[in-house]
Specification:
Distance between the termini: 50 Å
CATH architecture of the largest domain: 3-Layer(aba) Sandwich
Helix content: 25-40%
Order of helices and strands: EHEHEEEHEHEHEHEEHH
Radius of gyration: 22 Å
Strand content: 15-25%
Number of strands: 10
Strand order of the largest sheet: 1-3-2-7-6-8
Number of helices: 8
CATH topology of the largest domain: Alpha/beta knot
Length: about 260
């Protein structure tokens, strides 16, 4: 029987059909958004997710994090998790008969809309829209890959969605998973003190965020733009919109083209 998954955050037990050995020390919070992470490095979590707003929300029970150690499902005395690629080639591939049972355990008792994601450079590019969609789910299970990847059959069997942070390759999916979860958790109800703070952020409306300023009014010969000190909220809003559009045109012409083609979004 696999070892106990690790759980982080406040614990309020609810009834479950999950075997007791899988739940000791890993009780679920009733009605709370959950992230279940399958990884070879459970000690990497919560990592940065345990800090600042996401960490406070974790302790307050506004979301919950479980980690499932992939090594616990390994084969044989040495708990092997990988083998050489079929057909030859460099590196090692995570075995389907290891990853499959791990995902099965992680998905145990998952209810409602609960996608299974695999952090992969060949996946769909993660963006703010996906973060918002994940925040509206009941929970998410994330598989962190290593080596040359995961046996394709397990991805097909569990209808796994591959997700990428960008066009680059990392040594594993743990950092990518934390970045994705951070972007998602901060959109959950009650995590941010001011829900309006997400409205004008970069990518929330298809544009990059306008520049921000605070005290002092003058620093190193550079002044805060006078319009921001004018008290004229209509002019401030107009200035911020113009700045967002200008920055997007210059820095992300791809986003600007998309915005122009979909002006209502």
């Amino acid at each position: 029987m696999p070892d106990t998954p690790r759980s982080h955050g406040r614990k309020t037990i609810r009834p479950t059909l999950t075997p007791r050995s899988l739940m000791d020390g890993g009780e679920e919070l009733a009605g709370v958004w959950q992230a279940r992470v399958v990884t070879l490095f459970p000690d990497a979590f919560p990592g940065v997710l345990g800090q600042s707003l996401t960490g406070r929300a974790l302790q307050e029970g506004k979301w919950q994090l479980h980690t499932h150690d992939l090594r616990d499902f390994g084969i044989g005395r040495h708990r092997n998790v990988d083998d050489t690629p079929a057909g030859g080639g460099a590196g090692m591939v995570l075995r389907a008969d290891v990853v499959g049972p791990a995902l099965q355990a992680a998905q145990s008792n998952a209810r409602g809309r609960w996608p299974v994601l695999y952090m992969s450079p060949r996946g769909r590019r993660f963006d703010q829209s996906m973060a918002g969609d994940l925040a509206r789910c009941d929970g998410v299970t994330v598989l962190c890959g290593r080596f040359e990847g995961v046996d394709e059959r397990v991805l097909e069997h569990f209808d796994v969605t591959e997700v990428s942070l960008g066009d680059f390759v990392m040594t594993g999916g743990e950092l990518a998973a934390q970045a994705m979860l951070d972007a998602t958790v901060r959109l959950l109800p009650g995590v941010l003190g001011n829900a309006e703070s997400t409205v004008d952020e970069s990518h929330s409306n298809g544009l990059l965020e306008h520049p921000q300023y605070t005290k002092p009014a003058s620093w190193e010969g550079r002044d805060i733009p006078p319009v921001l000190l004018s008290g004229n909220h209509a002019e401030i809003e107009k200035w911020r919109r113009n700045q967002s559009e200008s920055l997007t045109k210059v820095r992300r012409p791809d986003l600007w083209a998309k915005k122009r083609n979909n002006p209502g979004k």
